[in-house]
Amino acid sequence: MPSTLKPKRPRRQRTGGKALNRLIENDLIRKVSYDEYRDKVQRVYGGPKGAVLSLCSLMSLHIPLGERIFRSRKFDLRGAKAILDVGSGAGQIAGHLLKYGDPDATVTCTDLSRQMLRRARNRLKSGRPRFVACDLSQLPFEDAAFDCITCGYVLEHLPRAEPGLAEMSRVLRPGGRMFLLTTEDNFSGAWTSRLWYCRTYNRAELRRLCEQLGLHWKQELWFTRLHRVIRAGGICVEIEKR
Ligand SMILES: C[S@@+](CC[C@H](N)C(=O)[O-])C[C@H]1O[C@@H](n2cnc3c(N)ncnc32)[C@H](O)[C@@H]1O
Questions:
Q1: Whose CA is nearest to atom 2 of ligand 1?
Q2: Pocket probe mutation, ligand 1, options 154, 158, 165, max atoms within 8 Å of Cβ
Q3: Per-residue pLDDT tens over the stretch 90-139
Q4: For 45-90, how does the pLDDT look when each residue is reduced to its tens digit (9 = 90+)?
Q5: CATH number of the domain at 16-241, out of 3.40.830.10, 3.90.180.10, 3.40.50.300, 3.40.50.150?
Q6: Domain ranges of the chain
Q7: What ranges make up the beta strands (E) of the chain?
Q8: What residue ranges line ligand 1, CB within 6 angstroms?
């Protein structure tokens, strides 16, 4: 059979690799109650690690490479008039929203940690965003209040993705789009998990769950070709609510 006609084998990680990842991965999120875990997350981001979060994002190239996705309109913000950024952290993604979104779009930044929201406010130096402290799994907004949601490296701080995805879906209008970025169950994801006490997601399982919830994976996004090859940077996807 010509090689072009050969069915593509799905990418499979060797069992040894998976075991190593499991060994590296932090399992706090599975061990304690969600309330205990959430307190821990608030302390981590409220403390010195949170203070250097934007520096980490610069050094890991998350900020500049993330900016390329919005600047190139691979994820197109044009036309979105009400944008919600979930788990804004130091405002890494919110900065791109202010720069590449419509100038008359409202931008709402949320985070579990009030300290992170203060840091985002100081870093963004803009009067445009409103800042709301809340948990991703209980968003204090009306149904279908937003045209667009961005959620970068936050979903992995929930023990299960479903409550977070369902809540974001509730506040997103039908036809609205979501930029979702989360940690993957591979070597780089395992180290992220260890550093930030988060879990990781399996790409195929997360995709299935999103589709079950009516969140269609419109396109997978990659920061660079290298990211695609070595599967670093996590799962990055544009989702459309049906
Ligand atoms: C790694 S930072 C992500 C910052 C930014 N979105 C980015 O893409 O770089 C994760 C942020 O999510 C927040 N967070 C963690 N769990 C959360 C939850 N359940 N609800 C809302 N925010 C949460 C943390 O406080 C932290 O600021």
A1: 89
A2: 154
A3: 999 999 999 999 999 999 999 999 999 999 999 999 999 999 999 999 99
A4: 999 999 999 998 888 888 999 999 999 999 999 999 999 999 999 9
A5: 3.40.50.150
A6: 16-241
A7: 82-86, 106-111, 130-133, 146-152, 172-182, 215-220, 235-241
A8: 41, 45, 57, 62, 87-89, 92-93, 111-113, 116, 135-136, 152-154, 157-158
